[in-house]
Amino acid sequence: MSKKTYFFLILILGSLTALGPFSIDMYLPGFPAIAKDLHTTAAKVSLSLSGYFIGISLGQLLYGPLLDRFGRKPPLYAGLIVYILAAAGCALATSIDGLILMRVIQAIGSCAAAVASVAMVRDLFPVKDNAKVFSLLLLVVGASPMIAPTVGGYVTAAWGWQAVFVILMGMGVAILLAVFLWLPASYAPDRSISLKPRPILRNFWQVLKDPQFYTYAFTGAIAFSGLFAYVSGSPILFMEVFHTSGKEYGWIFAFLSVGFIGSSQINTLLLRKYKSEQVVFAALAGQVLVALVFLTVALSGLLTLPITLVFLFLFLCCIGFTNPNAAALSLAPFTRNGGSASALMGAVQMGMGTLISVIMSLFEVPSAIPMVMAMAGSSTLALLVLLTGRRRITAPVEVQSESEAALLH
What we know:
By secondary structure, the chain is an all-alpha fold. The chain has one domain (3-181, 194-392): MFS general substrate transporter like domains (Growth Hormone, Chain: A, Up-down Bundle), CATH 1.20.1250. It is built from 15 helices and no strands. α3 (42-70) packs parallel to α5, α6 packs antiparallel against α13 (305-331) and α10 runs antiparallel to α13 (305-331). The longest helix has 31 residues, at 211-241. Residues 400-409 have low confidence and may be disordered.
């Protein structure tokens, strides 16, 4: 594979992966405006975020078998079309309940892109390169938290929150065209895979009972749920506790994303010397330490805006290391049912994120403590799952060679 082809594939797959994060991040600065226009509260508006996570969790389980049965591209086309129509529905919503419903449907469409992009990494690249490819995808995805909230703040201020969803609709159209014109078919349809409920559940069970899958899928999902706590709690924290404007919040969100994206790229350098298993353990231990100290400071009442930014930056740095390696380790044992494996991994991750975001929406009083408690609790639980589960992995599947001089071939 040439460097040009490698780069182009990463760009398209990264765009598919970034569609969901853009859909999450871009409208966050508009929470107060949405609450005002739809005559509700910011906490109730956050349920539209929870609805999005629910849609992704359910949709990924649907698309996994479809991607294996019909190939990657036909289900991807269908999902992107659903996404485009639902984005238009969000822009036209006149009630918070209508917005929540449209967000669920929008998520069901977008998760086709998320599942397909992960599965196609497994299809198009050698297993030993998967963790590095995931890190490169995070570089493309990194544009979303760095750009989306900032752009969303300015768009909301200039044209209203509805314009955000018009832009998302346009992104969906552009990505659909790119997939149709330039993304290669990476997987031959497997007609032997049944779409009946019982065989589908049996296939998911075959994936789920693999010790390497459930150890790293649940470790990664629980650790990553700390990011969902941050995303769900940050609009209230920054705009209601620290009284920043929507535009300022966008810039803060972009700054903090540098930690997450920067560490994911440093990860590609670490993988030249260390195994993914080693990086996951070290980063997760650091994540627990940061979260517990953060919680101690929050409970002591000493949190200021600068201190909060420092702790959140360090926390997101740790997640940038744990997430790509846990994903690669989860999918490494699978070839034939890679679509189902990636769907199940994504559903577990989004299920944890949904739970965290719903819990966050229950706290009406502006405070940093619920968010920080969720971050500390999820990180500690993830470390316990890792320590317990890896004892049951008798024949681990490696995701990279121990030393590799270059990333691109």
